[in-house]
Design a protein that fits this description.
This protein is mainly α. It has four helices and no strands.
């Protein structure tokens, strides 16, 4: 029997939750990228009138492309951080000494993700 099995299982569930969230963030980045390509394709269509063309030009700026890439990068970085955290926590669980928890990775991830969402939402509302 593994000593502290429930703690190790909780660590693994937390790791899997981080992975699931990271994959969702990466997928959202791909959706933003594909939407930008769709808007650019519509701009190149010959049957688009001038009013629609001006609205599409506002939506197809450099920000959506950069935002999509930013979400993908944040997702990949969070996978790396989650893996490091999982291994570190597993080692700390096996250690006999008491350790205090760290919320820094959670806080950084939340702030970065919220900032990206706020910037993208403001861009879409203004554009």
């Amino acid at each position: 029997m593994i000593r502290g099995y429930s703690d190790h299982a909780a660590n693994e569930r937390t790791f899997l939750a981080w992975l699931r969230t990271s994959i969702a963030v990466i997928a959202f980045g791909f959706v933003i990228e594909k939407f930008n390509l769709f808007v650019l394709t519509l701009l190149n269509a010959a049957s688009v009138d001038e009013a629609a063309r001006s609205r599409l030009e506002k939506l197809s700026g450099p920000l959506p492309e950069g935002a999509g890439r930013a979400f993908i990068i944040v997702g990949v970085i969070s996978i790396v951080v989650a893996t490091i955290r999982f291994v570190r926590t597993g080692r700390l669980l096996d250690d006999k000494a008491m350790h205090s928890p760290s919320i820094v990775p959670d806080l950084i991830f939340s702030v970065v993700l919220a900032s990206l969402l706020i910037v993208l939402s403001a861009y879409l509302l203004i554009g």
